[in-house]
Amino acid sequence: MGSPTATGTMRTSHKILLALGTLGLGFLAWRFDTNVVRVGLAQVGWGLALVIGQEIVAHLLNALGWRFAFARADAGAFSLGELVRLRVVGDAINYLTPTATLGGEVARATMLDDRRGADVRTVSVIVAKSTQTLAQALFITAGLALVAGQWIVLPVAPGLPWVAGVGAACIVFMGLLGRSRWAALASAAWRRAFGAQVLGFVRGHKGRVALSTLMFALGYAWGAFEAYWICRFLLIPVPVATALAIEVLSITVDGFLFMVPAKIGTQEGGKVVIFAALGLPASLGFAFGVIRHIRELAWAGLGLLLCYAAVGREGLDLRRATRSQPRAESPLR
Prior knowledge:
This protein is an all-alpha fold and 333 residues long. The protein has one domain (10-309). It has 14 helices and no strands. The longest helix has 43 residues, at 282-324. The protein starts with a helix and ends in a 9-residue tail after the last helix.
């Protein structure tokens, strides 16, 4: 257990992040014409169902990335449906709680069926988290290399550079604040406990590690599909390269601000900065952020429902097992 000082600091950091996010959201609502945002959202209409529904593809790809984090002999013990369900649950916990993206990983390792030992399950989660992080870095690097030329020559809307500058400064500040010491210590504890087993898996299953990284990279790339269609629904059709640029920059911003629960204020603010940097209407960047926020909250809500359902089933199974055990005869009889 952490010291009271560390715990107090952690809670203070979260309060500061939530306050900054809320203030940022309020600033955006004051700075931009909400009527423009409202009209943009109205134009999406039925397309919002597509935006929410298409995310299942990313969850499937991420579940496949996790599956390749098991040895071949162990992967067959868990159905793809179970892995998808726990990916959704873990993402919801990471999204809604300030656990430095570790809370969801612990939940996955704990809730995964015990057809394999705890070591196997935990190592798979650590390997999957590592390959996902590697895939994120590779996707950002490759994406920036592909879109850098176009990004540099795009015109910036007049009057908005200061918005992008202030937003970028806030992103860096909040990102540095969010990467708190307790999160690093928590991940270090996992490495100390399972580091040798993880290293052994990587050395013995290089092909599966590569496939896991590829699946997660494809999951990140799928976000460009969502960005492309959101822009079309907002009546700002963009080329594929621009949609890719939006997604690459979005993932970069999210990587800095991973500690802000539910991306309060950072989702919309990040999109305003990105749209301004790419020469797109900043007000529609705000609308873009709202739409993506709705999608994230919808899946986070589903993840919480799945989590509560799983916890309820486990409690019911435990009560049934307890009732089914034969009672010992009383020695007084």
